[in-house]
Amino acid sequence: MNSEELPEPRWLDTDEQKIWYSVAYALNRLPAALDAQMQRDAGVSQFEYMVVSALSMAAERTLRMSVLAEYTASTLSRLSNVVSRLEDRGWVRRTIDPTDRRASLATLTDKGWSKVVASAPAHVNEVRRLIFDPLTKAQQRQLGQIAERILKAIDPSRSATARDMTGEP
Questions:
Q1: DSSP for the chain?
Q2: Taking residues 23-49, what's their average pLDDT?
Q3: Domains in the chain with CATH codes
Q4: How far apart are the two ends of the chain, measured CA to CA in Å?
Q5: Nearest alpha carbon to residue 76 among 63, 61, 89, 90
Q6: Contact between residue 105 and residue 65 where contact means Cβ atoms under 8 Å apart
Q7: Concatenated DSSP letters for 121-157?
Q8: pLDDT of 103-141, one tens digit each?
Q9: Tens-digit pLDDT profile for residues 85-98
Q10: pLDDT at 6
Q11: Cβ contacts of 148 within 8 Å, gap of 6 or more
C-alpha cells in the first residue's frame, strides 16, 4: 500500500495525546525500574528473572523454548542466548523434546528454583510498589482488562496470556 492509498490519519485529540504520552512514558520507564531492582537485589536482569520465573510456574518446571519465548515476548535467538547464560550458572537445563526432536525444552534446575525463591520477595515488593499500591482494586482490575485488550489488538491470534502462566482460568 503506497502513501496515496493510506486513509487520512485519525489524529489524537488533546486528551488522547496526554493519555498516550503518559502511557508511553510509563511503558518506557517501568522495564528500567524493574531491571534496576532485579540487578540491585538479585544480580540478574529483569528478562533473566522472567525466564526463570516462567519456568518456576510451569508443570515440572519445564517449557518448550518456543512457548517460553512467547511468554517472555522474546525471539528464540534472544531467549537462546539468555538460556545459555542461565545454563552456565546452573539454573536452567536444556534438552531435546522427546515428543518432537526438532524442539528444545528448558527446565529450571533446583539451583534455579532456589534463585527464584530468593529473588521473588524483593521483586514482588517492587511490582506491588510500582503497579498495585498506587491503584484501587477497581483500577487494578481495569488495568488488567486494558492490558488484555491492548495485547489482543497487538496480536489477535495470541494464545498465551498472563493467566496461562499462573494457572488461573
A1: --TTTSPPP----HHHHHHHHHHHHHHHHHHHHHHHHHHHHHSS-HHHHHHHHHHHHSGGGEEEHHHHHHHTT--HHHHHHHHHHHHHTTSEEEEE-TT-TTSEEEEE-HHHHHHHHHHHHHHHHHHIIIIITTS-HHHHHHHHHHHHHHHHHH-TT----HHHHHT--
A2: 96
A3: 40-154 (1.10.10.10)
A4: 41
A5: 63
A6: yes
A7: HHHHHHHIIIIITTS-HHHHHHHHHHHHHHHHHH-TT
A8: 999 999 999 999 999 999 999 999 999 999 999 999 999
A9: 999 999 999 999 99
A10: 86
A11: 161
φ, ψ at 106 (rounded to 5°) = -115, 130
Q: Which residue has the cell 488533546?
A: 14
Which three three-digit cell numbers place residue 125?
A: 515488593
